Structures are given as C-alpha cells and as structure tokens.
Amino acid sequence: MTAPNATPSSIDLIGNTPLVLLKGPSAAAGCEIWGKCEFANPGASVKDRAALWIVRDAEARGELKPGGTVIEGTAGNTGIGIALVANARGYKSVIVMPDNQSKEKMDTLRALGAELVLVPPTKFADPNHFVHTSRRLAEETEGAVWANQFDNVANRKAHIESTAPEIWEQLGGRIDGFTCAAGTGGTIAGTGLGLKAFDENIVVALTDPYGAALYNYYANGELKAEGSSVAEGIGQGRITANLEGAPIDTQFRMSDEEGLEWVRRLLAEEGLCLGLSSGINVAGAVALGQKLVAEGRKDARVVTILCDTGFRYLSTLYNPEWLETKGLPVFPWLVR
Questions:
Q1: Around 242, how many Cα atoms within 13 Å sit in the side-chain half-sphere?
Q2: φ and ψ at residue 163, rounded to 5 degrees
Q3: Active site residue: 23, 36, 47, 326, which one?
C-alpha cells in the first residue's frame, strides 16, 4: 500500500524542517534573516539529526546490534534525540547529563524511557565529566555503543548530507551567509562544509556565547574563554573532531542579554517560543547580516539555526525567579 504524500516511518520525520523569514531580525540587519526551524523535529531540536546519523553509522559498522544499548553524555537534547531514535530502532538508551540542566530535559528523558544518569557539572579535564562518564559506562555495558557526539564525525555528516542541502534548496540556491553557535561543532562545521560545496563564497560565521573559547581561537588563534553564559548545549573549550577543518570565515561573540532580547522579541512579535541558544544564534545572524550589508551586499540572505523549543526551558528562561537569580532581565509578561 502506498501513500505518496505521507511519511513511511517515524525516523523519516527527522529533517526537512521549515525555513522561516524572521521579520524583526531582518529589519535590524537590513537584509533577510532566515531561521531553520529545528524545533520541528520529533525530539524538538536540531540534535535529532546527529542522533539518527550516529545510530545509523553504528549499525552500518556492525557495532550496534538488535537489542543493543546506545549510551551518550549530553546537555540533554542529543539524549532526547537518541532516546527517540533508539526506541524506533529497538534499542535501549542510557543518557549521562550534568545535573544543572533544565528540569524539563530530565523529565523528558525519563518519560521517553531512557535511563538517566546525573553527574555534577565539571571541567572536561575532570575524569568525572559527563562525557568521560558516558564513555566508561559504554565500555562496561555489554552490547552498548558510545555515541560520542563530540568526536564522532557522523554528527557533522548529518548536516553535510541533510541540513545544508535543505537550506540550499529552500532558498533556491541563493544564500550569502550562515551562522550558528558550536556545542559539539557538528552543526556549524557540517552545514558550513555542505553549503560551501554548493558555493564557496557563502560566508560561514561562528556565533559564540561568553564562557566559550572558540571566539578567541578563530579570532586570535588561542583557545581562551572569557565571561560566562547560562545557555545550555552550546559553548566549547576545545577543537572537537567535528570542528576540525570547519570553514569558519568570521566570528561573533554574543551575550546572554543579547540572546534573550531576541528570544523575547521573537516570541512577542512573531510567535516563536525558543531557547537561549536560538536567541544567541539570531543575534549572530543579525551581526553577520549587518556586516554583509556594510560590505555592499544589501540584498544578502543569512540563515541561522533555531535550535530547540522554549517549552524545554519553562523552569529557567521563562521563570522570573530563575532569571532574577541569574541577574538577567525578566520578560515583561512574566512580571508579577
């Protein structure tokens, strides 16, 4: 039985997300700013793509067999994607996460049937870091594979093979710039490589939050972090395997306050409820758009990633008490 306009598998719901013109950011930049709606994936984030490609890669290499287990260390969204893909493919999932991430992510992972292991947040050099803990668990668990999203280049391959071609097709082959933040580096490196394969003149920019080291690396050749950010899932202090060879042409650094202003405006003015990583990405897209316009490209088109839904941060970004404890502005409609 065929249904030409239907989707044959839940796995096929991952990707092919809409691209939307962002009116407020476009006006601020003086050119078109487009957002890739990755919150439309089944797991409500861009990380569904990496999860699917990582699982498929492990299957293709014969490492992941029926009844097996996928284990990963994550700030949450990759874990959610892995749990959903694992369920659809008949695997178990174990997710190791820092205990300072949003309650919504933890509750979601438990609801999806994943085994959730919480560890204290710590530096990557610490053997108890969530990434190292997940690797040890995978080594100790029979029939398990370690997803290793930071250094498994199946992650960036997902964006080379899906995100970049989708953007290119959606914009009819006319795009001038792309930017987003880096967590694992898979999204910016993969999408950047994929887009430059279509047109090497596309400007790829890193948008880095404070507290991460990549802005200084690409600007000055030194991995040096300054300040801090409450954004979850973005910010990196090393060059991961996914970031190696990333075609970064320029870089911006955006504060939480700048990101939150776009979170506020996109919800109040355009009806998009997003997380802080999306707000930081949009702030970077506006900066890139302004740069291209200043260089004479007044009809420039810039694309960024709307990473996940704001519904995942109701206890944090959309909680006035939490915002106040972090010294961040409270959205006017939340003021009591």
A1: 27
A2: -60, -50
A3: 47
